[in-house]
Amino acid sequence: MNYTLIKQTHVVVVILFLLIYLIKTILLLANNDAALAKFTKVVKVPEMIISTLFLATGIYMLMQIGASRLLIIKIIIVLLSIPIAIIGFKKKNKMLAVLSLLMIIMAYGLAEMNKKKIDKQNVDASVSNVNDPNYDIKKHGESVYTAYCQSCHGTGGTNGAGGADLTLSQMNLKAMQAQIINGSTAMAGFKDVLNEQEINAVTAYVETLKK
Ligand code: HEC
Fold this sequence. Notes:
Blueprint: H1 3-29, H2 33-42, H3 44-65, H4 69-90, H5 94-116, H6 125-128, H7 137-148, H8 150-153, H9 173-182, H10 196-209
Helix pairs in contact: 1-3, 1-5, 4-5, 7-10, 9-10
Bound molecules: heme C.
């Protein structure tokens, strides 16, 4: 299965889920019981599909990426918000409804925080000296890859633990470099972590992984 597709589905589903909750909460806060009842009825089936997709894609991604501490906190918050939302709307309790909405938004924020944080890693100094006559850009790139990329893309780029399979990449060198610098939905950019030489080196190495 294609991880990127699952991830994109998850993001879309989360946004729809949030929208439905936001509308319901606004109607509840506005004391518009009739509209709330009507809206709840209309979205009942879509909401069931969305919730199922939300959980299924979430579980799939969890199995691929593995659970970090932040991710576990996020999952606990989401799971806790569900009964709170159910009780809140059933009892028309505004505080509980708002609380559950805030919890889901908070979990979403945690996911973003999770993505931004890349720690500086140690790259083998014996291969990173450009002035060394034996300097080999691909060896340098490989050590950068091991330090920063392997955790998601796996050894040799194939057994991707959540990252794309780099051996199957269709990207040209330039697009690849842009991806590494700027990142994308599920991959943070490395522009603040790696220097230019490291980016060039890791790009050169990843290029060699392509089949
Ligand atoms: C947090 C996990 C993670 C890390 C760390 C990571 N990547 Fe990625 N990478 C991904 C994911 C996931 C994708 C698929 C695109 C998406 O969902 O954003 C991707 C996509 C890519 C692509 C595009 C492949 C294609 O053809 O679509 C390249 C190239 C790439 N990564 C290189 C790297 C390099 C080089 C590093 C290390 C400097 C790195 N990645 C670190 C998760 C990661």
